[in-house]
Amino acid sequence: MLLDVSGLNVFYGGAQALYDVGFQIYRGEVFSIIGSNGAGKTTILKTLAGLIRPLSGQAVFDGARIDGKNPAGIVDLGISLVPEGRGLFAGMTVKENLKLGAFPKRARAMASESLAGVFDLFPKLTPLQNQIAGKLSGGEQQMLAIARSLMSRPRLLMLDEPSLGLAPLVVKTMFEIIAHLKSQGVTILLVEQNIHQALKIADRGCVIKTGRITMTGKGSDLLTDPEIQKAYMGSLQ
Question: Which one of 17, 24, 167, 235 has the largest count of C-beta atoms within 10 Å of its C-beta?
Answer without folding.
Answer: 17
